[in-house]
Amino acid sequence: MNHFEYRNDRLFAEDVPVEEIVARFGTPTYVYSSATFRRHFEAFDSAFARLPHMVCYSVKANSNIHILRLLAEKGAGVDIVSGGELYRALKAGVPGGRIVFSGVAKTADEIEDALKAGILMFNAESLDELKAIDATAARLGKKARVALRINPDVDPKTHPYISTGMKKNKFGLDMETALVGYEMARDMTNVEPVGIDCHIGSQLTTLEPFLEALDKVLGFYRRLKDMGIEVTYLDLGGGLGITYNEEEPPHPSAFGEALTERLKDLPLTLILEPGRVISGNAGILAFRTLYTKTTPVKKFLIVDAAMNDLVRPSLYGSYHRIEEVAKMGRPVEIVDIVGGICESTDFLARDREMPAVEPGEYLAAFSAGAYGMTMSSQYNSRRRAAEVLVDGAKVRLIRRRETYDDIIAPEMESE
Ligand code: LLP
């Protein structure tokens, strides 16, 4: 459920017509719904009510500080993967004790910043990283809480680019190496092994891969326990999918039910790192049709958003529903919706049924709240889009459109 709906054929974000937003802020603009963010967070969080748990929203999905603040106010922790995400989370007021730090390439500086912030736990992904965490913690006279990320070798049956828990992936440690890692961690003076971590991929539309991974991780947990290493946190990562088109992913309540069934008698605090399921359908990208062009084989809608704004179609062939901001009931035709970037992969939709849209009309790409703005770039020296947050009838600009000076500013400071 989200709060983008048509009323008399006009698209509304909560109580605000999207036409008003684009008239005021221009295009392309990301428009988010506060009520949808809150609702998705509550639905997810309450699904685990019967277990000790912490929902650590995955910042990479949508990292706007105002969104992080909104979620932190609801009690969310965060999952971060870089010093930049740590910086954002702290600025947004997320307490250090609600931050988990994932990712294969944490630098000594990032580890140091995270230790100083007193984060809950590092999800370490290699033995070398474990040594680096120990060394940095020793230098600072601190003890680092650590989980090792297990690669359970489970096929999440999603797009290969976003599968992370298979043997061939760069993520995590196979179980035998992880056992060595836990022994190392136990013997380190400045590291304390407190958890086990696992994340197998993103946009999963069935529960089976999660449960298969969980079974393997619980087997591993028992082996650790037999070795006298008892952890208290189990981090199962993110990955629950959403509906972009016709997918029917399980509801968070079903996910919660299945995990609760397996974990209810264990002395573990469950951590989850949902990103897309919280933010994906809480945002749209609004843009304007500039031109139409008919060639002997195609019709193109040329629009003012491009792959630098929303790269998912170009990168993964992802589907985003695209509709008019004001519906006129015209007959449909088959078009490609393309941006102005000089690459043939620059498309938002291909061979899509659309009404006969005219230049000047506004369109919206749905399900753009996750991995939209965060994956955007300035390619072709295009300014990144504005971001607007709606709350009931209130509209707030939460990131202004970049200026050309923003684009060149770091170059003006060169020596
Ligand atoms: N935790 C870890 C360690 C992750 O690597 C990810 C996502 C998440 C949590 C959040 O996963 P989610 O709940 O959002 O599925 N750019 C791609 C998605 C990449 C996901 C990367 N890791 C896309 O646009 O589909």
TrEMBL record:
Superkingdom of source: Bacteria
NCBIfam families given in the database record: lysA (TIGR01048)
Pfam families per UniProt: Orn_Arg_deC_N, Orn_DAP_Arg_deC
Keyword Transmembrane: no
Residues involved in substrate binding: R276, R312, Y316, E343, Y371
Name of the protein in its database record: Diaminopimelate decarboxylase
Active-site residue list: C342
Record PANTHER family: DIAMINOPIMELATE DECARBOXYLASE, GROUP IV DECARBOXYLASE
A GO biological process held by the record: lysine biosynthetic process via diaminopimelate
UniProt-listed InterPro entries: Ala_racemase/Decarboxylase_C, DAP_deCOOHase_LysA, De-COase2_C, De-COase2_CS, De-COase2_N, Orn/DAP/Arg_de-COase, PLP-binding_barrel
Keyword field contains Lyase: yes
Annotated Orn/DAP/Arg decarboxylase 2 N-terminal domain residues: 35-279
Catalytic activity: meso-2,6-diaminopimelate + H(+) = L-lysine + CO2
Binding annotation for pyridoxal 5'-phosphate: G239, E273, P274, G275, R276, Y371
Modified residues (N6-(pyridoxal phosphate)lysine): K60
GO molecular function, one term: diaminopimelate decarboxylase activity
Subunit composition and interactions: Homodimer.
Function comment: Specifically catalyzes the decarboxylation of meso-diaminopimelate (meso-DAP) to L-lysine.
Cofactor field: pyridoxal 5'-phosphate
Sorted UniProt keywords: Amino-acid biosynthesis, Decarboxylase, Lyase, Lysine biosynthesis, Pyridoxal phosphate
Gene designation: lysA
UniProt domain Orn/DAP/Arg decarboxylase 2 C-terminal: residue ranges: 30-369
